[in-house]
Batch of 3 targets.
Target 1
Amino acid sequence: MSHSSTQLPQLLETADPMRLAILNARREGRSIGLVPTMGALHEGHLSLVQASVSKCDLTVVTIFVNPTQFGPGEDFGKYPRDLEADLAALATVSRDVLVFAPSVELMYPAGYDTRVVVGAVARPLEGRCRPGHFEGVATIVLKLFQLVPADVAFFGQKDYQQLLVIRRMVSDLNIPIRVEMCPTVRDADGLALSSRNRYLSPPQRQQALSLSRSLQLAAELVAGGQRDPQVVLRRMRELIQQAGDVRIDYVALADPDTLQPVSSMDRPVLALLAVRVGPARLIDNGMIQPP
Amino acid sequence: MSHSSTQLPQLLETADPMRLAILNARREGRSIGLVPTMGALHEGHLSLVQASVSKCDLTVVTIFVNPTQFGPGEDFGKYPRDLEADLAALATVSRDVLVFAPSVELMYPAGYDTRVVVGAVARPLEGRCRPGHFEGVATIVLKLFQLVPADVAFFGQKDYQQLLVIRRMVSDLNIPIRVEMCPTVRDADGLALSSRNRYLSPPQRQQALSLSRSLQLAAELVAGGQRDPQVVLRRMRELIQQAGDVRIDYVALADPDTLQPVSSMDRPVLALLAVRVGPARLIDNGMIQPP
């Protein structure tokens, strides 16, 4: 199916045409890539789409602001929604992607009553700060994997714990899909791209640089010989707190597979952090490799 | 694939050949039926296989005694396992079925950590008597639905609540499979077939007839004009208790869709019961229709 005559990617909003498009593509022997998003697309999302377009014959981008992964008091209501802008952004990568943007009523009809629960890897860090978040994520991603039975799904490293939760679920539930991790995309000044960055005022955006700078500092400390996680964590926290009026949810040095805290830094360690800057709760992470 | 030259159905014990067989069948445009079992096959299971063989081009029977749906102190250890006898029984229906009999280690490898939880319909009756049972059922059935992506799955009415739980899950998680209910198969004296019937001594088997007889009594009472669920329940319990040394887990008259207790019997009502007879915990159910 070519859409070169249209300006924007094809938009599907219900399950049956979506599944039919996939089945047809499969019958033609085409490989299928899936990029699940909540819309408000930025260059980070587009890099996932680009990865899928370059590796798969058909790319499906889902756009769905999933209510069950937001907690009470979180930003579900004000999360940015602009389907037209998202379609235009996708068109800059490829007009041959399919966009699946279902309604909340389609995904969670009356009587909906099933949850997918991933254990240990979903509990620390984001799991502790956002109770129920990963249940909502695992459940909606499983649903999307059923509605769009792709060969590969692309997720960004910025949501590293989410990726581990999804990989655990995919492996445990024998879901026939490969989960690929793509690198975090950053602005020139280092800030990891996030749809929530648009909540920031210019001064807050400056404060938000403390996240990536603290990751940079951790890497420099370890490169310089520091191996004590407590020292590295203290220096990271100090750097963030010097940014001004921010609130640290967590700063952690963790095993990249289990997300359990590390007691030494002789092997690759993942640094993860969540910081509230004004109205935005921002997360970032980076691998810290000893030289 | 024809196996007329072999004596027994083809047995697969790992995931990749199983999925490959399904993908090949799909490519040939064949419809696929799935009959999930725990083995110890009896005529009830074989009626499900027969239903699948008559409606689908390829039938897959899974045999897996699923540890996660047994509670502590239940009969997981002594549950009858006899793969050779099961294959021979299947051969009496069709030698063209595929049998998938994975190991516990394949289904729950080290690090396994994901559960599927269905809500309200899984809570009363069996859910109350066997905490965690339906989580185990939902999880293993979801896994089997991923490993054997069939068009239709066949389940028996005897496990009525299980069927409702699976239908809720399939609908909620957008799993592209149809769940078909087949009637309970009974011995000539009315006892519903169950792999656990073989735990019964001859006198206990006589006591076990009280289950189907109480369902019969309920139907007769309603046919005779009785509309008070409390009266019907009392008469059912009395009949069972007169059978001797049995223990009632529950006797219920419930809405067939929600399994919530009914306050009148003017519409079709499901009678469900669970009774311990000697070493066996037996269940049965039947629709009670007002004339």
Target 2
Amino acid sequence: MSGHPEADIYHRQGMGNRAGFGETPALVIVDFVVGFADPAHFGGGNIAAAIDQTVALLAFARKHAWPVAHTRVVYAEDGSDAGVFTLKAPSLRKLTEASPLSQIVPELTPLPGELIIRKQGASAFFNTNLAGWLAFRRVDTVAVTGCTTSGCVRATVVDAMQSNLRTICVTDCVGDRAIGPHEANLFDMGQKYADLMTRAELEAAWSTAR
Amino acid sequence: MSGHPEADIYHRQGMGNRAGFGETPALVIVDFVVGFADPAHFGGGNIAAAIDQTVALLAFARKHAWPVAHTRVVYAEDGSDAGVFTLKAPSLRKLTEASPLSQIVPELTPLPGELIIRKQGASAFFNTNLAGWLAFRRVDTVAVTGCTTSGCVRATVVDAMQSNLRTICVTDCVGDRAIGPHEANLFDMGQKYADLMTRAELEAAWSTAR
Amino acid sequence: MSGHPEADIYHRQGMGNRAGFGETPALVIVDFVVGFADPAHFGGGNIAAAIDQTVALLAFARKHAWPVAHTRVVYAEDGSDAGVFTLKAPSLRKLTEASPLSQIVPELTPLPGELIIRKQGASAFFNTNLAGWLAFRRVDTVAVTGCTTSGCVRATVVDAMQSNLRTICVTDCVGDRAIGPHEANLFDMGQKYADLMTRAELEAAWSTAR
Amino acid sequence: MSGHPEADIYHRQGMGNRAGFGETPALVIVDFVVGFADPAHFGGGNIAAAIDQTVALLAFARKHAWPVAHTRVVYAEDGSDAGVFTLKAPSLRKLTEASPLSQIVPELTPLPGELIIRKQGASAFFNTNLAGWLAFRRVDTVAVTGCTTSGCVRATVVDAMQSNLRTICVTDCVGDRAIGPHEANLFDMGQKYADLMTRAELEAAWSTAR
């Protein structure tokens, strides 16, 4: 991100510092469901590559017994819980409990004990039990992966920070249908909300920290 | 925004629709405080121009008796409520109750009965009484102004949408220290969370709707 | 409630006033599911009678096109979302998506468009989309029915009030496994959080108000 | 509580278990402000005795470096944030930032670094930064003291449990203007939300656990 033409403004105003690791990390995987892996629906861009990298990070997280949470977008079949988000993006209403599009991609299938969050909003925290689920496990650091970088990942990262969790946005484990917004949102998050780390950097840093 | 090189992806996937007006609007003015109006602290870019436009919009809102809410960032003097946000941006800790930097700019001084929200996070909704304050007034539409577009405005807009309020981001009443992030975030918000309108468009549309 | 031996203290300290009706009411039916209707599981006391009265109130609400929301307690089959509540009351973990015990009682079967909330906590508002669902419909008044009066009804009433909704606890439409706690919680709610009305009083008052 | 005439129903239905200690406790002191210590305003009953006991518990908590949070009820001078709660209890509006009635009682004066929460609702968690403040400190257990047992203490305890924190209601450190509601709410909390312990029991159990 150092190449961003306006990065110096942020530096002069005291932003872009590292929050660093806490004691107990968790992995949050946002909306890696079939419909967001498919360019014919909500996918495209670098999402497929981000899923591949997240497969590896999920194996790492499980090996180290990190709590793991997955999100799905799920709307009621009868439209009863549709709202402003589905006015902006009516196609989201396809994502019902039983729809193939709203199932987590097979290569990231949750194991028993991993949390599966059904959400109607953008953030994995908004109107969900994620914050309390993490609190029960004394998690103070979340690594966020998923899609889209400019949408539900960004919203999740902002809420993780606002929930006072040290937040890492894993740059090669998040993807977006469009690369411009992907890059722009990584910049915003790195300046204000999250530490940006590649998967390799995260795994190395964590292994060193233990 | 039609000129964005990747806008067609969003269009094909069914995003970027208008949510439209509801019945009862409110004006939310995010963080137009002295420190964010001053390029030596958190200001710069097009923030001064956005304040000027917001002065006019505030007059319009008051004339039409819209509920008006203002936000300030306020941290405790003793640092007791500092957290992850102030790890990323330690300079925010200067914004205490008594600091000149955290006072609302004089040209937007709140009137009695307007809500003043003290917040430590990015969003005007997170950990605040804003949603309930709006519910009590049966507000279903919020026009968001303030700064920064890529920071607290974006976070407020996402939460307004998630709170199921029809959300308008008033494009010339929001500003940022850096123009690239300003533009990038307007694009994201317009595609997924908010209707983008200039002040003139908003005022004309509202007057027509009555 | 006038007979409560300590009611005068509340009166002297300025409590126990009426909040009154707003403009747009909704009906919230808390946890009237099979397991809470059955004394062998979580039921007993006056719950059956409260269900009978709620059948009538639901018909009234539908006739007047009030938004209607129902809650169910639903825990994951694999125990992944169990927490402190299930430490206090492990039997709650029986209430899974497919369990007959967690299905809404047949006489209150939701119609399409009515909201069905799955919750793990006590309050219908906590970590759910209820507040936003009501905001989208400009609801400012909620009539709360369900069970138990001393548990999820009380928690829902407190959150409705805290969400700045005028709250009516419908005294013969709420029930509890134990009558002492039922009465004690009606007293608390009436003094501080909700207007207490019987179903007949509510229906008459609403009809008069139109 | 074993003497409660209906306790056996709860026992048969699987409630009333202990949640137990976690790893990191915090002390939350609810609304021990001048106005709630004064029978002429919101006080009376056993509140004075509960303050005395809390003075001792606060010393214990500080000695063991527990995080400590205090709450105050604070409404704006201009009434801008009044709502349903102040319709039910208009006298709450006296509790403004500068009012002597809303100041924490002198014997419990917060030390630097202790959190002071200003709230308009009943619960110390609702619309406040308490959950995140605890998460940042990896707190998983909260001991709740304060007043009133049947009001803001109860609401705080329910939200602590819903936030997945192991919750202890310290029975001789909570007080109420009226003893009937005090006892009734201790019963409810003990059955469903919190472990009931006297100050002496809490201190002994914690010292043993180390």
Target 3
Amino acid sequence: MNGSSAAGSNSRSRAGGAPYPLNQWYAAAFSDEVTRKPLARTLLDRQVVLYRTEGGDPVALIDRCIHRKAPLSQGAVVGDAIECPFHGMKFGPDGVCISIPCQDKVPPNAIVQSFPVVDRHGHIWIWMGDPASADPAEIPDTHWLNDPSLTAVKGYFHLKCNYLTAIDNLLDDTHLPFVHRNSIGTPKMVGAPIDIEGGDDWVAFSRWTLDTPPSPVHAKAGGFTTNVDRWFMVKYVKPSTVLIDVGSAPIGTGAPAGDRSKGISLFSNGTVTPGEGNSCFYFWHTARNFSLGDAGMSDLLKSEMTKTFLEDVEIVEMVQRNVDSDEEDLPQLMIAGDAVALRARRIIASLLASESLSSGA
Amino acid sequence: MNGSSAAGSNSRSRAGGAPYPLNQWYAAAFSDEVTRKPLARTLLDRQVVLYRTEGGDPVALIDRCIHRKAPLSQGAVVGDAIECPFHGMKFGPDGVCISIPCQDKVPPNAIVQSFPVVDRHGHIWIWMGDPASADPAEIPDTHWLNDPSLTAVKGYFHLKCNYLTAIDNLLDDTHLPFVHRNSIGTPKMVGAPIDIEGGDDWVAFSRWTLDTPPSPVHAKAGGFTTNVDRWFMVKYVKPSTVLIDVGSAPIGTGAPAGDRSKGISLFSNGTVTPGEGNSCFYFWHTARNFSLGDAGMSDLLKSEMTKTFLEDVEIVEMVQRNVDSDEEDLPQLMIAGDAVALRARRIIASLLASESLSSGA
Amino acid sequence: MNGSSAAGSNSRSRAGGAPYPLNQWYAAAFSDEVTRKPLARTLLDRQVVLYRTEGGDPVALIDRCIHRKAPLSQGAVVGDAIECPFHGMKFGPDGVCISIPCQDKVPPNAIVQSFPVVDRHGHIWIWMGDPASADPAEIPDTHWLNDPSLTAVKGYFHLKCNYLTAIDNLLDDTHLPFVHRNSIGTPKMVGAPIDIEGGDDWVAFSRWTLDTPPSPVHAKAGGFTTNVDRWFMVKYVKPSTVLIDVGSAPIGTGAPAGDRSKGISLFSNGTVTPGEGNSCFYFWHTARNFSLGDAGMSDLLKSEMTKTFLEDVEIVEMVQRNVDSDEEDLPQLMIAGDAVALRARRIIASLLASESLSSGA
């Protein structure tokens, strides 16, 4: 984790996007995306370049040279520094310039902003707010992604919707029988009762759908020939991570009473990071406790989950377009399926309010 | 014709387009475009979904679910209702929600706006203003389109120009020798005198061009071997429909005196509906009184009229781009050929003014 | 050179681009681009149509008809006039309308703006400010382009960056070892001393890089087998022209002392004209004093120079995008290589200031 040279500004969104809390850890990338080759990504409305030092530490700098604003990400990583493609100025992991080819001296203000980053649980986490407040203990626990007792597949989407719409969608399972009728939906789900619990910075719910035909994806993955009991346990943790423990077990094998060993479990995580304007990055993985290391099963699940998420992408992007283009600003009628998402939105609103207070804005 | 649950707003244009009167009937589609499969179309800056009930009645609803604003047009028609693709809420022809799958009760405010629609003369007409004022007797008469004694071809364009520019073009025949020199233009036309007459909500003109070579299209359709007398009789009716009775007859066969039986007549209608911003839908048909039911003649005329209209599309879209991008706001010099269009514009201005008055704006 | 009917407005940029002096000669096109076929080009944020009269004189008119703003450039040149494609109105070289087909009289205000233009040194130069101040003696001297003792290749780019960014780049040779490392860059250049001199409306510098391996392009063009002495002599003249005298000669053949006869000389000119918003036209040529008339050498140089300029295009357009999208408005740190560009920017600022004064703005 590298220090940062300057505090983030207090403005919390740009280009008309939804506001987001700044003093939080967000996933910038999967760990394996950040290498010795620079990676450019616009996060929280700021252009960032990510790379690794010779020792393997991740680095995040603002992706604009202090000179002419050329993108550093188009240059080369040289030792622990990155070289601007325009005039060859080199900047170290802390953003401080160490060389200007056309002159002998490097002035003390030749610095680009650096951001605290941490490599944990398969993601590179970035902190784009006040670096003095960056505490790695607050990084969301997404350990399922690289848990050695599970086998995971993963991917990401750059969604043309804001991060709130993406989180809403992850916390609402009542769209499954409609949007995902051919993948993970189960018609009976929407009638089953749910339990909700939560705290200051989290909210969770569980829904058991008993004695139901398995969803198309669970049927393929688990090879079920009878009806199943299906569980759906979802936990939101601030600012924008959703952990999903979902599975099915043949009826009569005791899953509702606690024995899920005859079924299949999928431990998924979705973590959402605001991008530019009303766009966001949605990083997902699905880890399983069966067919461990089986490449064929990994291919099947990666393909099925990608297909399923593309169904979400289509609908959330249509919804965002309609919200954005609605100059009448028609009200939205909230329904039962929004209960958990509304609690998550209240947590985010409270994070935003406390940042407003602390900045005096 | 279905009732509507809410009055339209008083704002008459959005996204920078030209203002238009709201309390008018506009063509939403050709009758045969509206089926049991939902049709999405943005009319008067509002997203609308059109479909038919099991009994065949046309329905027009706002194309945004009351819940998350998802487009209903992406869902399925089920019985007389349309089902939202996101969470399965169903709305009847009057816009009232009849089912919310994730909850037992449907609250009384679960309604989307519906619009009066009428299926007449080959078009579905929509009224997007105050539904209490919607009187089907005011629907423009475009009966030529499905007159059994004529054979018609038809089509539509979604033009990137505002509806006024499209109407101007339909009411000005002095561009024919230039824009349409290779299709329906006749050089001598611009020199021929015109008669103009009109009333509160209409204006018409006629122009006879005597003893002139036929236009390329008339020559092909009528097989003329001599010069012709050409008539051009155009009538605008509010808010945006133009009826065109045009034809040619060999010289000396008495057409100017009233006997057009030796020539060919084409009865065309152009009706224009504001779309989103500076765009509009231009629905056209051309009905003929010769070669009735002859598929080869229909193909010829459809192809020639489409080619001709594409010449218009090119020029009116260039003009709209130039008007929109003219930050100097250069004045426009009106010329003789604009006389009829200017009268139509005055009628539209007076419709707009009376709506302003009645809304107190 | 045709007169102009109206003074330009005092606004000096539109659509968010950088301001530019209006009362200056700018290159509108290469001489051979302007023919009897109309050429449309947006210069200094105004749409212009260029063509030649029957006698060969260049004509520049605003490319919007006074009637409906249709683009004259889509019409035909007829005699010395241009005919509007929409209704056939004809305008002479002075912008005065000479015919309106649908009416007998031409009103006195039927005029489109014309601009002074001069055909000189291989370019058509246009004056878009106050025509009373247009003095052809102030046209920049780019005679290398059609000097009979040299052989030139040429081309142009429509850059998505403003004209200042393009000029900055031409006046800064310290980017060559980075942006052009595989074409015209020489690593040792950035360490070599430069001499700067200048006046009220020009600034020049020269840099000798001694005993250096030749750049890849010079090596190919000159066939050098030893190290060379390389010169780089650059002169900016207002408002936006840069003359570049560059070459290499084998070491020990006396080039630094004045005898360049054993080497190769390339006389290049770059002249930049503001386009629409933050875009500009960059006209370049490279004339040589060797292999005169050799088509193979012309092909080689045209291909190598184009490749080199495309390296510039890529970086200056990235820089412009970053400057435009930088809502934080981060400061830019100037470095040694910016010295000459900063002096040129001061000359332009002073031209802008004096126009402000004279317009009372």
